C-alpha cells in the first residue's frame, strides 16, 4: 500500500523483506534527524520580523532552513499538539484533544495503535533518543506533577534511550516548573512567582542541563555507525518565566511596546488566563507597566532558549554532522502576550494556533515561505526525506509531505490548516480565519471570520459581511481534511 504522502517515497524498502535483510537499513537512510521542540514559542523572533527580540541563533538556523510563516498546530495545548506531531493523526480521528492524549496509545477505549514517529525511525534501524520535553511529560515518562506514578514510557516502544539529568529538582515536572536551586512550583513551599532571573550560568537551570546532556549525546551518536533521531525539548519560554539574569538584562534598555489590542474584544474565544494568573504577580489584571515587564520576561526566556539552540547547532558543525543531519525546530503552539487581555494559549484564535516551524535539509537553500502548513505535515515530511515507509501504521497519516515546499518555497502549501479546541474548530485558508463551534443539531454556532490581511489582531468579525467566504470555509470544517500538497 502506498503512503499517503502525496507522492511515492524515493528508494523505500519495505520492512521484513529479503532485500531489507541483505542490505542494512542504516546504509539506505540518508539523514540523521535533530528535532528541537520548544514550549509556548510564538512567532516572536528576529527572523519573523520582531526586531526587539534577541534570537541570533534561531535566526541563523532560519537563514539555512525553509522557515514557515504560516504553520499552524492542531490543538493549542501542549499534550494534544505533541500527540498530533508524534502520531501524525488528525485529532478528530485520534481523539487526542487534551494533555492526556498520550494515555490513549495502545490502550483504553480508543485503542489507538498509531505508530509514533520515533518508533517508525527506531524500527528503521535508527538510534532514537529523547531529552527534555518532547511528548507531554518533561522526561517522556509517566509521572504526575508531584512526582508520583509508574515512570513507564509515555510513548511505548519509541525510544532507544530516554535520558536526562534531574539535578536538584529530582524529577521531570520539578525540572519543568523549576526555579533556582531546586525550588519548583509543585514542591509545596508555596513559592510561585511568575518570573525569576537568578544570576546563574546557563547549565544551572534545567534547560541548560538538558542542552549539556544533548551535546554529550551528539558526541556519542557521532561514533556509532547507525543513523540517529535525536529529539531535544526545551521548557522555556513556558511559565514560569525563569532564565539566567544575563538574558533579562538584554532587555533593560529595549523599547518593548505594549500589545496593540489589550482589551478583550467581542470574540467568544477569549479566556481568563487561568494558568497565568495561577502564579504570584503584583497586580491582577496587569497594569501597563506590568504588561511590558511580562513581555520582557517572556523575551528573556526566548533568548535563553535561543542560546541553547545555538550550542546544539555549533556542536553539529564541530562534529561534521551538518552535512547529513536534518534539523527541525518546532513549537507546540503560540502564546498570547496580552492581546485581547489573554496571557497564555488555550484558544482557537490565531495567536494561539500559529507557531514557528523550520526545516533545514543538507544541501537545500534556506528561505521564508508563506505556504499554509500544519504540524501533521512534519511526520510524513521526515519519512519522505529519510526514505522510510509509513505502511506499518495502523491508521493513515493525516498530513502531507512538505518536500514540494522545501524544493520550492513559493509553493502555496495547503488549501487550509485546521485546528481544534473542545467543540470548536478553527480554519486558516488564504487570508481568512474562520472559527466556529459545533452544537449538535444547531450546526456551527459562535461563528467568527477574520481577514488577516487587514486585521491581524482579529478585532473585526466579518461573519455577516462576507457570507460567501464563511460558507466556503465551513465546508472545509465539515470535510475535516485539507487537500494534500502536490
UniProtKB/TrEMBL annotation:
Cofactor(s) listed in the protein's UniProt record: Ca(2+)
GO CC entries: cytoplasm
Task: Give the record's keywords alphabetically.
Answer: Calcium, Hydrolase, Metal-binding, Signal
What does the record give under GO molecular function? iduronate-2-sulfatase activity; metal ion binding
Q: Which residues form the Sulfatase N-terminal domain?
A: 32-386
Q: Where is the signal peptide?
A: 1-19
Q: Does the keyword Metal-binding apply?
A: yes
Under PANTHER family, the record lists: IDURONATE 2-SULFATASE (PTHR45953:SF1)
Q: Which family does it belong to?
A: Belongs to the sulfatase family.
Give the protein's recorded name. Answer: Sulfatase
Organism (species): Oceaniferula marina
Amino acid at each position: 500500500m502506498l503512503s499517503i504522502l502525496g507522492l511515492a517515497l524515493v528508494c523505500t524498502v519495505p520492512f521484513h523483506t529479503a532485500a531489507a535483510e541483505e542490505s542494512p537499513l542504516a546504509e539506505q537512510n540518508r539523514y540523521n534527524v535533530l528535532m528541537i521542540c520548544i514550549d509556548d514559542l510564538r512567532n516572536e523572533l528576529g527572523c519573523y520580523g520582531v526586531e526587539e527580540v534577541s534570537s541570533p541563533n534561531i535566526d541563523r538556523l532560519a537563514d539555512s532552513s525553509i522557515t514557515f510563516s504560516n504553520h499552524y498546530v492542531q490543538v493549542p495545548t501542549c499534550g494534544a499538539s505533541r500527540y498530533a506531531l508524534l502520531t501524525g493523526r488528525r485529532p478528530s480521528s485520534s481523539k487526542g484533544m487534551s494533555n492526556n492524549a498520550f494515555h490513549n496509545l495502545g490502550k483504553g477505549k480508543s485503542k489507538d495503535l498509531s505508530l509514533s514517529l520515533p518508533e517508525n525511525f527506531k524500527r528503521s534501524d535508527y538510534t532514537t533518543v529523547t531529552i527534555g520535553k518532547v511528548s507531554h511529560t518533561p522526561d517522556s515518562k509517566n509521572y504526575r506533577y508531584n512526582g508520583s506514578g509508574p515512570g513507564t514510557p509515555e510513548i511505548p516502544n519509541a525510544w532507544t534511550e530516554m535520558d536526562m539529568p534531574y539535578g536538584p529538582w529530582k524529577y521531570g515536572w520539578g525540572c519543568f516548573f523549576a526555579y533556582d536551586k531546586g525550588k519548583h512550583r509543585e514542591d509545596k513551599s508555596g513559592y510561585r512567582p511568575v518570573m525569576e532571573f537568578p544570576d546563574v550560568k546557563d547549565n544551572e537551570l534545567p534547560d541548560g542541563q538538558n542542552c549539556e546532556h544533548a551535546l554529550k549525546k551528539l558526541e556519542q551518536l557521532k561514533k556509532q555507525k547507525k543513523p540517529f533521531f535525536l529529539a531535544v525539548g526545551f521548557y522555556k519560554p513556558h511559565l514560569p518565566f525563569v532564565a539566567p539574569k544575563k538574558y533579562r538584562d538584554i532587555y533593560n534598555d529595549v523599547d518593548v511596546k505594549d500589545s496593540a489590542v489589550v482589551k478583550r474584544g467581542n470574540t467568544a474565544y477569549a479566556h481568563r488566563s487561568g494558568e497565568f494568573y495561577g502564579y504570584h504577580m503584583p497586580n491582577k489584571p496587569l497594569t501597563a507597566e506590568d504588561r511590558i515587564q511580562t513581555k520582557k520576561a517572556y523575551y528573556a526566556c526566548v533568548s535563553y532558549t535561543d542560546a541553547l539552540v545555538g550550542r546544539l547547532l555549533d556542536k553539529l558543525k564541530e562534529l561534521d554532522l551538518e552535512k547529513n543531519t536534518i534539523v527541525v525546530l518546532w513549537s507546540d503552539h503560540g502564546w498570547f502576550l496580552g492581546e485581547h487581555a489573554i496571557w497564555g494559549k488555550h484558544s482557537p484564535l490565531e495567536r494561539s494556533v500559529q507557531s514557528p516551524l523550520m526545516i533545514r535539509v543538507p544541501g537545500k537553500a534556506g528561505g521564508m515561505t508563506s505556504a499554509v502548513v500544519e504540524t501533521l505535515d512534519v511526520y510524513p515530511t521526515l519519512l519522505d526525506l529519510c526514505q522510510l515507509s509509513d505502511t506499518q501504521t495502523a491508521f493513515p497519516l493525516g498530513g502531507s509531505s512538505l518536500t514540494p515546499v522545501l524544493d520550492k518555497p513559493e509553493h502555496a502549501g495547503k488549501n487550509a490548516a485546521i485546528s481544534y479546541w473542545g467543540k470548536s474548530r478553527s480554519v486558516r485558508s488564504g487570508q481568512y480565519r474562520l472559527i466556529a463551534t459545533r452544537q449538535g443539531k444547531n450546526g456551527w454556532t459562535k461563528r467568527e471570520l477574520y481577514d488577516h490581511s487587514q486585521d491581524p489582531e482579529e478585532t473585526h468579525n466579518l461573519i455577516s459581511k462576507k457570507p460567501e467566504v464563511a460558507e466556503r470555509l465551513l465546508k472545509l470544517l465539515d470535510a475535516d481534511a485539507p487537500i494534500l500538497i502536490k
